Structures are given as C-alpha cells and as structure tokens.
Amino acid sequence: MSLNLFPDLAPNPNVHVIGNGYGLEKLQDNLVVLYYKDQVKETHEFKNGLDKRVFVVNLVNNKKVTKSLLAQALGISRQSIDDWLSYYERSGYEGLINSYKGSVKQGRKEEAVHLSSGNKSLSLQAARQESKQALLLVQPELDFPKQEGSLPDNFAMEYEEEENHYGGSFIYWAIFEADLGMSKFLNPHLGAYSLVIWLFLMMQVNKLGSLEQLKVVYKKSFGRLLGLDRLPSRPVLNQLLADTVNKKETSLLKENFSSYQIKEGLVEIKEFYLDGHFIPYTGKYRVKKGFHTQHRQMEPGQTALYIHDEAQRIVWFDLQEGKADMVASIVSYNSNFTNKGVLPLWVVDRELWGVNNFLRLANCRFVTWEKHTKKPALQQIAADQFGEPFDYNGKSYQVLEVSKKYKTKSKNKDGQEQSIELRRIILWNKSTDRRVALVAQDELLDTQELATALLKRWGRSENSFKHMGTRINMHYNPGRSLMQLSEQQEVANPAYKELKKQIRQTKNNLVKLNAQLGKMLEKTKQKKKLTFGKAVETQLAEKQVLQQELTELEQALQNCPPRVSIGSVKEGAAFHKIKIDTKNLWDMAGCIFWNSRKQLEKQLTIFLPNARDLLPVLEAITKSRAWIRSTSNTLFVRLEALDTPRFRKAQVQLCQALNEKNVTLPNGKLLRFSVKEEEE
Q1: Which of 44, 148, 292, 431 could bond to 395 as cystine, CB 3.0-4.6 Å?
Q2: Given this model, what pLDDT does residue 275 score?
Q3: Cβ-based burial of 255 (10 A; exposed 0-12, middle 13-18, buried ≥19)
Q4: CA nearest neighbour of 478 among 579, 577, 575, 576
Q5: What's the pLDDT score for residue 139?
C-alpha cells in the first residue's frame, strides 16, 4: 500500500495549492474554482472588487488557507490580503467597501463610526503606526536590576560546565578589565547601564554589525558573555538603549574617555594621526553634505574623525554633520595639552592644506603634505644638497629642508595680505626616484624625524583607521532614525553666486573689448588720423558702460552675504541632523575593542614571531568554542584547541599569560583560562 505523502497536491496542473487541503483554479480574472482534496467544491464569479475581497477574507478566516499561496494563486500581493483582513477586523464586511464620500446612507448608520473615508491605505498605515508607538511606550521589565554595578550580578551564578559557542570571546574580558580597567571608567558614568557598552563590545568581537543581527545568535551562549543567564529580547534591549542615552552621564562619557586613556597611560601623546571617514545618509530628511572620497563627490551624510597614536591605538573620535571642520577639532583638542608640557605633533593628510588653515593652527605643531607642488622644480634640485640617506620600511630616503612663506590668495577685512612661514621639507624616495614636499610647523623635531612621522602612516599603508572598516561596522548607528533640527541652516547664497558669475562675464567682455580697441587704435595711429572713427567711438562708449556695470556689480557683491538661511532660499526647507547619542556609544565600544585587539596582538607577538600569523590565530581563538564553568569565586573558560601544533602552543601560552594578570570580572569573580586537551 502506498501512502499519499502530499495530500494537498492536486493532479490538475492548473490548480494552485493554497493550503489546508484546498486548491484554486483561476479560469478568468473574475471566475475561479475552489477545490477541496481534489474535488470541486465551489465556483465563484466576482461581479466587482467587493466580491473578491469577501471571498479572500472568508478563505483565510474560515478555511485557514495560507495567505502567501492564496495571493500567488489570485495574482495579488500578500500585503493586499493583510489590508483586507485589517479592514474586516475593524469594520466587518462594511470595511471591505471602497471609501465613501459625503453623508452616510440610512442603512449604514449603525457602522458609521467604523466606516472608512478618504484614503483607506493611509488611514490603516496611521493606525498601525499608532499601535506601534503605543507598544514602544510600554516599559518592558528589564532582565537586570538597576544597581550601581557595571553588570547585574549574574556573573555570580554557579553552574556546571557547559558548552558555549562564543567562549573564545572571553579572552577580550581579560584585556577590558586587567589592561584597560574599563569597569573602573564606565561605572561612575553608567552604573548598571554599562551593559550597553559590554553588549556592543561583544557584538564587535563576534563581528555582529547591528542589533538586527542578534536574532541569529545563540541567546544563552551570547548572554553568558555579558554575565546574563540569557540575552534579553530585542524590545528589552531597545528600552535599555533608550534609558542609557537618557542618562545625563552619557554626555560626559566620550569627553572623559580620552582623558582616562591618557591618564592611565593606555595611549601615547607624542604623535597624533588624524583622518576623517565619510558616513553616507540615504534617508528622507535633508541633511548636510560631506565629501565622499571614494565617490569623489559631495553627498548627504556625516564625517567621523579619528585620532590614533603611534601604536595605532584610538585616542579620540568625533562625529560631525556634513563636511567636518578638521581644523576646529584639532584646535579644540590641542587646547587640552596647552598647559601640560609638550604639545602633540599632528600628522594629517592633504585635507589640512590651506594657508587659512595654517593660520588657525598657529598654536599647534603639525606636519602635512604640500599640495600644488611643482614637481619639475623638485627634480632640478642638485643631489648633493640633500642630507644623509636613511632607511624606513625597507626603502632608502634623503631629505632637504628650506624655509618658505605661504600667502593667502585673498586679503583680509583690513585689505592686508596674510602669510605664514613654514618649514618645507623635500623628501626624496631613492627606491623610486620620486620627490615630494611636505610642510611643518614645529621646533622640536629635526628634518628626518618630521619626514619619518609622515612615513609611519603613509610609507607602506594607511594607518589602522583605514583597516577598522574591515573589522567594525563604522557606519552603524543604533538610533539613526532619530533626527533633530540642525543648528547649521546656512547655504551658499544663490544671489551671491550669480553676482560673481556676472562679474566674471563682465570682466571677460572687457578683456575682449580692450583687445578689439587696441587693434582699432593701432590702425588709426598707422593712418596718422587725428580723430577716432565712429566705430572706435562706439567701442569706447561700450567700454565705459561695461566699466560702470562692473563697478555696480562689485558694489552689490560687497553688500550681498555669501551665505544665507536655507529657509530664505527655499520656503519651508530646513536641515536636520542625526542624533549621535547612540552612535557615540557604538563608536566608543569600537574604540575599546580596537585598542584591546591591539593589546592582544602585542601579547601574542611574544609567542608567534611571524607577524603574518598574528591576526589569523587571534581570530581563530576568538571564534573558537569553549566550555565554561562557574563556581562561587571563579569563572573557568576551557578553550577548544587549535589544530596546528605551533598555533595550539601559542594558544596555551596566551592563556597562561592572561591567567598571570589575575583577571577579575566586574563583580569581582576571578577569570581563568585553559585549553582543552587533545585526548578529550
């Protein structure tokens, strides 16, 4: 005897299976046949759209067919079926009738308050949005007590050894606590809400680029990384994030983060490497534009600024709307060191170039590349004028220093020309026979040291900031949908641009007219005439008119503001900006993770002399499973052993080195590591 394993499948190829034993054959757009277990059950003719909507609602509600299969059989969208069901739920069959206009008929008075008017789709969308907002207002009960510790005391739970899919991530806890002392920094600012930072940290350790990706993790295993019995649900995490950014302490968190690192000696202040990264915005709001380097054009978005030290650790970060004012950030941050001894040397790309920028940086030490360099002039410099050769990154260099005064193209308000004298260094790459120039303002370092400062970043590859994007989702903002009006509402004045265009055209016309007049006057002189001809007089009159127009246009330009409010250009228009409270928390977690990763690399270097093995082995250890056991005073983490013997040996040595730090978790429990034996 053969069993029918697929009773829903109809033998007729024209019959579409719609679930629960039912099938549907579409004979015409308004005529369908309903089957039940291969037998014809009903034939339906749709005289109008209402008949079709009633038929669909009855099938879903009464016959329990599958909505997606029914939509495919009828050639309609799944969303349409959902809308019809919502209309029916709100107003019964009356809700399936098209929206009416005017007064309610006598026979429909009883349902008048439920009947739809106007655009039903927009009304339904508004109702759904209102329901969604109402759910957000409900305060979910958090899975942790609001205590002053950085984490709930769930790390204090005791349990027998259990397998954890993300157990290798615990090695980062050793750096967070023993080397960086993050609990000591976070607790005074956030208390129990430090859980948000720990969550973001563990997400970035495990390459989870957004909260949405948490739906694919093992909730219990990931929760253990945070000291929780289980990872909270998404609504709870959303509420936790909202409560965290509402704490006034979060506004001080980013400002104090850099100070804490410098005070604890976690970063160096000898040289600061600064660069920007553009974060595009594709939403519906009007926001400021910045320069997208890869696309080579202005686009709506934000610009993230990062400062690294010589060891490629992040010192400070900032997020600005549109095109960031890099010079303002340097001046502002540099003021923190004015009365604390030696100022840091700012090493910046060509974005810093500009005499006006250099004048603003009068109290800063900096070095950058020179723009608009005349390369043929550099090649003509005699070789014997350069200093002694030196090697860096396997290449040979020579340098030559001169002093040069750089002038602004325009005069200041007092009509005076501004200038600044800087150290100009010619860098000769002997390996490629290429010469470039850089400029610096500094009195402490010699020529070779200044050149080397730039080569540390650009001699072989970009600074680690450029590599962060391959490991961290630098574009992510957990609260990107939250917008507010920008304080910067100015745009370029169209009238100002038009006046400049007219002035340029008038000057061009004057140049052409003068050229013509010159030729005509030369002919008059050659003919030895004492009076000008009519043509010359016409040209002279036209020249006088153009000169008068030029004078009036230049006067109008002086009285016209270069920038005006966008509302005066386009009525009702305004710039918005993305709230960055949640973005700052995400980025700070990224900084902590990146610096911790650098610390683990440094630790692993002792056991793996080949630099090419460092990151692959570190990632392998981080991704490995582990078996964790919690006692009253210790959390034991037994890592899965790596396959390659020399890598496994380095893994064991790393665990021993971490154990020597005597790492304690936020609740004081000791953290101990080991590696699973092969025979196990």
Answers
A1: 431
A2: 86
A3: exposed
A4: 579
A5: 38
Question: Do residues 379 and 429 touch, judged by C-beta distance below 8 A?
Answer: no
> What is d(CA 475, CA 197) in angstroms, rounded to the nearest whole number?
17
Contact 617, 642 (CB under 8 A): yes
- Provide the pairing of β-strand 365-369 with 345-348: parallel
Query: Which pTM was predicted?
Result: 0.72
Chain length of the chain: 680
Cα separations in angstroms, 413 against 207, 298, 486, 645: 53, 30, 29, 72
Tell me the β-bridge partners of 305. Answer: 276, 318
Q: Where are the alpha helices (DSSP H) in 528-570?
A: 534-558, 566-569
**If you ran DSSP here, which 8-state letter would residue 219 be given?**
H
- In degrees, rounded to 5, the angle at the alpha carbon of residue 141 between the alpha carbons of residues 137 and 146 is 110
**Bridge partners (DSSP) listed for residue 298:** 291
How much helix, strand and coil, in percent to the nearest 5, is found in the chain?
45, 20, 35
pLDDT score at 51: 85
Q: Which residues contact 60 (CB under 8 A, 6 or more apart)?
A: 67, 70, 81, 85
Res 122: pLDDT = 60
**Measured CA distances, 465 to 120, 315, 419, 489, 575 (Å):** 51, 11, 33, 31, 29
- Long-range contacts of the stretch 76-83 (C-beta < 8 A, 24+): 81/56, 83/120, 83/121, 83/124
- β-pair partners for 435: 428
Q: Quick one: which H or E segment has residue 248?
A: none
Q: Are 43 and 36 in contact, with CB atoms under 8 Å apart? A: no
Q: Give the separation between CA 304 and CA 326, rounded to whole angstroms.
A: 10
Amino acid present at 226: L
Other Cβ atoms within 10 Å of 534 Cβ, number: 7
What DSSP assignment string belongs to 646-677? HHHHHHHHHHHHHHHTT-B-TTS-EEEEEE--
Written as six digits, the tokens of 368 are: 């950058």
Q: Is the dihedral of CA 354, 359, 360, 364 positive or negative?
A: positive
Residue 19 backbone dihedrals phi, psi, to 5 degrees: 95, 155
Q: What is the mean pLDDT of each run of 10 residues along the chain (680 residues)?
A: 39 80 86 86 86 88 86 86 82 71 49 54 62 43 44 78 95 95 91 92 95 93 93 90 82 87 91 89 86 84 90 90 90 87 89 91 93 90 92 90 86 74 93 92 93 78 68 86 78 89 91 83 66 74 88 89 85 83 92 95 92 93 94 94 93 95 92 81
HSE-CB at 656 with a 13 A cutoff on CA atoms is: 8
As a whole number of angstroms, the longest Cα–Cα distance in the chain is 126
Angle of CA points 283, 288, 290, to nearest 5°: 100
